[in-house]
Amino acid sequence: MQISLSDVATKAGVSTATVSRVLNGKELARIPASTQERVRAAAVALNYHPNRFARGLQSRRTMNIGVLVDGLRNPFFAELLDTLEEMIVAAGYDVLPDTGRRAANSDGSGLRGWPVDGVLMWAVGDMSIEMGGAAGELPVVYMGYPRSDGADFVCHDAAQGSRDALQHLWDKGHRRIAFVSTATHDARCDTYAAFCQERGIRPEYLAIDQGASAGEADQSAYRKGGFKVGQWLGEMPAGSRPTAVFCYNDLIALGLMSGAASCGLSIPGDLAIVGFDGIDEGLYRARSLTTAEIPAKQLCGIALETLLRRLENDLPEEPRQVVLPMRLRAGTST
What we know:
Layout: H1 5-12, H2 16-24, H3 33-45, H4 52-59, E1 64-68, H5 75-90, E2 94-98, E3 118-122, H6 127-131, E4 140-143, E5 152-156, H7 158-171, E6 177-181, H8 187-199, E7 204-207, H9 218-234, E8 244-247, H10 250-262, E9 272-277, E10 290-293, H11 296-311, E11 321-324, E12 327-329
Parallel strand pairs: 1-2, 1-3, 3-4, 4-5, 5-11, 6-7, 6-8, 8-9, 9-10
Antiparallel strand pairs: 10-12
């Protein structure tokens, strides 16, 4: 049986006009976020599929939204893409995902030759680099990182999340807290340096070996690099090693946890570990991972809403820039 707009409206308890506005991204500023969420949830539950071909002819759009993420070997980006896909399909569009490595075309026509109406992008890079000439004509909403170039973005407060993670370790009594990372200058690194200075403790930087697996993407090397750092810490005399580590992301933390445990270290007795991201995998371990959790679902929802409103010219010209708070998800690794 073909599911109609009225079926979705009945299930969501709203009018068909409201369903149409939400799924078409129109006048969203006038519709409460809770109502939008209810409509999208009803559309997903009923497996509602609008006639995209007819809509495309009427609106002169492709009904495609491109999604660029920074690789899929990190479960965080796989979970993010899955969340976005569900939301985008519920809004009546098709999803064209890519990792960015193959997104640009020589003619700048779109995502690997496929035309798109707009792009959601989780990366530090620039759209003009990723997609060539198409970038200047496409609505783009950047995700995950703040920007200073006047672009729309929705991101998490990485400095606040990092500080909460470090304060958690401090409150547990740790005074030798190391930072395991590949980066040297971003919100996590800068917050760690400032925290150590404020508390009068010596910073200890432990770099992971991203060359441990030549030819693989950086995302793939995080876990392996963390595992090697964990082994190295396990071989150190107890009086020489830090009692806690804050990791740049959850993959490093999970690898480090396994490496340390393989050398007989007790977690968190000998070594407390905190990650950053909040991937589901961290929940389902013998020792669940304490982590600074990115509000991924909320972030995705606001980013998509922003893009849809840009497509409808339903936002002021000035950029929409949203920074969301993070929360500490306490596990048994600390």
